[in-house]
Amino acid sequence: MDLQLNGKTAVVTGASRGIGLATVRRLTAEGVRVVGAARKPTAELEAAGAVPVAVDLAAPEGAAELVERATAELGGIDLLVNNVGGGDAVDIGGFADIDDAHWREVFDLNLFAAVRVTRAALPFLTDGGGAIVNVSSIGARRPAGPPLAYHVAKAALTAFGKGLSEELGPQGVRVATVSPGPVRTDIWEAPDGFGGKLAAAVALEQSEFLNHVPARMGMVTGRITEPDEVAALITFLLSDVAGSITGSDHLIDGGIVKSV
Q1: What is the pLDDT of residues 124-140, one digit of tens each?
Q2: β-strand 79-82 against 33-38: which pairing, if any?
Q3: What Gene3D superfamilies does the record tag this protein with (predicted)?
Q4: Mean pLDDT value across residues 202-227
Q5: Of 15, 32, 163, 215, which residue is 20 to 30 A from 113 by alpha carbon distance?
């Protein structure tokens, strides 16, 4: 299928690994020129064909810096993937264990980074009609249990995408949300990540714990999702082939969410 992306320009945040890196690879394979933003760009990001930009998007000034550098490199921005996120790994306790500083940190990274980057990129996106994909989480729909601050921030991000789609649709800009369940990234696989901490909490080796995750979470596919699968969905939603899709939240969770 020709996704009609060849020659377009894109900014992908949180691009150094996981879903972000897989998205960069998908987009460059489609002929898109990509700027990949990360706190610490990796060799893998550069090898994927992106222009790496080192920037802290949790800082208020980071978004303007990123867009300035991206437009200098690309000459404009057609597509935006707000993928940067995190802060869930330290949030496995109860509500009383989460202080104000942690709430602010999680919201800065998971909500306000997307708000700021979108605001900075908006003049370029509306100039020629563009597309935005925000990467949320099934935690936005299933916020019970830890990591609470992360789930609440992602719920806000999902609402942000819905509201923004209404405002920007008449200007030719589409906005969609992708909400993954467990994905085979460092969040689940790194010893100091969310998965590692959960495994330690139930006194299991991490590899054994991950083997049980699909069944415990009701994934009818029987396996954890791969980053490239999420990237494929993001790439499709950015494409002109998906020209009538906007305002919607797309689950890619192996069937965890049972509601309709």
Answers
A1: 999 888 999 999 999 99
A2: unpaired
A3: NAD(P)-binding Rossmann-like Domain
A4: 94
A5: 32
